[in-house]
Amino acid sequence: MKRLHVHVAVSDLSQSVGFYSALFAAQPAVLKPDYAKWMLDDPRVNFAISTRGREPGLDHLGIQVESQEELHEVYGRLRQAGDNIIEQGQTACCYAKSEKSWIDDPAGISWETFHTTGESITYGDGTGEREARVAHARQGACCVPETAPKQDAACGS
To answer: 0.85 cut: is pTM over it?
Structure first.
């Protein structure tokens, strides 16, 4: 069964954990100094927040799957949706080990598809998301200045 993933960048983790814990009537399943994640069943969502150097607001969306079979099914959907797919493969991100790919929607919102395979003691480097965002910027409209990606990137496992 798939789960929607939402990742929001926040400026004050403690304040945001308090807000979302009250909103969801649940404590985070993962809580680190720079990251928190709720694995909710009603609604079925992997909701994460982090203070990883991004502007506060929606960071990215995603689809989390529970098996390799589901992951390959979603990868097929990615290929139908667009051709600028960043295949990150096995990675450590958001204190988890995952296999993932990225794509940007027509509005420029990054979507990650992933299967979590274990825990990680580090946040990870976010390279897959950075590559997806930079690839999207290169396809942008004429006369749009390119911006350098920030070194710390969030991701949703």
So the answer is: no
Sole residue written with tokens 């404590």? 27
Contact yes or no for 71/104 (Cβ under 8 A): no
What are 111's strand-pairing partners? 61, 103
Distance CA 110, CA 59 (A): 8
* Longest CA pairwise span in the chain (Å): 46
Do the beta carbons of residue 50 and residue 9 sit within 8 Å?
A: yes
| 80 burial via Cβ count (<10 Å: 0-12, 13-18, 19+) | exposed
64-113 pLDDT, tens per residue?
A: 999 999 999 998 988 898 878 888 877 777 777 888 888 888 888 889 98
